[in-house]
Amino acid sequence: MRIAALLLLLLISALPLRAQDEEVVLGLSQNRVAITASFDGSEILVFGAVKRQTPIPETPMEVIITVAGPDGPVTLHRKARKAGIWVNADTVRIDRAPSFYAVATTGPLGKILSQTEDLRHEVSIPRAVRSVGVSEFVADPGNFTEALIRIREDEGVYQQLEGAVTFDQQTLFRTKITLPSNLTEGSYPTRIFLTRDGRVVSHFETVIDVRKVGLERWLFALSKNQPVVYGILSLVIAVVAGWLASAVFRWFRS
Amino acid sequence: MTIYLPIAEVSVNAYLLLGIGGLVGVLSGMFGVGGGFLITPLLFFVGIPPAVAVATSANQIVASSVSALFAHLRRKSVDFQMGSVLLIGGLVGSALGIFIFNMLKAIGQVDLLVQLCYVIFLGIIGALMFVESLNAIRRAKRAGPATPRTRHRNWAHKMPFKMRFRVSGLYISVIPPFLVGAAVGMLGAIMGVGGGFIMVPAMIYLLHMPTKVVVGTSLFQIIFVAAFTTMLHAITNQTVDMALAVLLLLGGVIGAQAGTWIGARMKAEQLRILLAALVLLVCGKIALDLLLTPSELYTIGD
Fold first, then answer.
1. What is the CATH number of domain A14-212?
2. CB spacing of B299 vs A249 below 8 angstroms
3. In chain A, domain spans
């Protein structure tokens, strides 16, 4: 019994040691994305290398890179036909879903990452959208989560990029992540997983900062902090523009 | 050229927004409607979130209405007395409408009510106006040009608190215009529009005001209702996007001037039949959305 416990202890202490055998060294083309008035999406290059103290093991290593946007709750409505017209019949609130999510890999995600590791690290898109605690008012909450993923994948906000990571000599990896133009500001956690036989060998996390700058920043802050001033300013602009257009036209005609 | 909108958090083609603003501005100047019933669905279509679209279109309506009103002021086709009475009624009605709206929101299904309101009111008003102006055009063809307007004597003349509305050439009680203003204000608050498309026909058919005065007077009233709505949205939801509003109103104010110019050169019956056709078109689109099976049953709410 005691020996067994000792063995277990040894095993546990050995795990982090083994993990440190192969480590991620990461580079990002940019760790800040500035949203200006002319912002039209952005492309981020994620690249890096695997640092090793030991020779490369036989079984090939795989790389998974995820970029997630700020998350929040999402409400989904489902329409149904009632008395001949389509109405929102069922509503489900999903606790937490990222506003953006991209997962790029060296191969098919199901092959290179085991179910348990996926559950633990929340890597695949369905895992990143947390649907626990979905309201029990509908019989099929799973359909709502699927619908959310389907809609956001169509919009290009959720991206599953299998095989998009190039991995040279089991050492150097790189991929491009395209950020869409309808980006929400906030911190974008970026994670890199090194896997072997479906197990995560090592992982690394960093943050890409997405911020509005200049006029965009100023307007956004004003609307939140001084809503009355913002409202009045909007109206003044509207009235002045209306009057100005009228005056200009009269000048042209006379 | 695309532009990133700070509140809507999407990037949209700037010329497209100028075009939408311009189109709605033309309608505003021609018919005296704010265009809220048209601009909001158009903005949805471009990909602006619904809450931002509703709030920002109210701001744009202020701009195009001011622009068009100045054009009408020059033509002296604004009845300030009538406009003020309608406005007082309108504000009372708006307050009542917001109260009803919040009550329905608590029960749920407010979206459905708004859509049904659109279909019913746009349908009835569009159909009535269409038939009436068609008859008027036929009559005008048969009887030759300019049959003199018959003096209407109806219930509006029998009530107390009579007032002389000089610009409109009416001597009626203030109660009917007040009630019209209140009813339109209430519907406007529930449907999230200025209510011009209900106000204009109501002024023509219920109050028997001359068509040329109706447009300017309606605009005068809409400015205040839309300004009130803008402030309300800016304070409670922070959904007014100033960058979006500026692009829309740049197109809008120019369009409004062009619309006034076109409107002044058209016969009243033609003007009315065009507005009727437009109202029916929007009504049909919303009705189809309710009746046809949607391609995606699920929608993401806010």
1. 2.60.40.3880
2. no
3. 14-212, 214-248
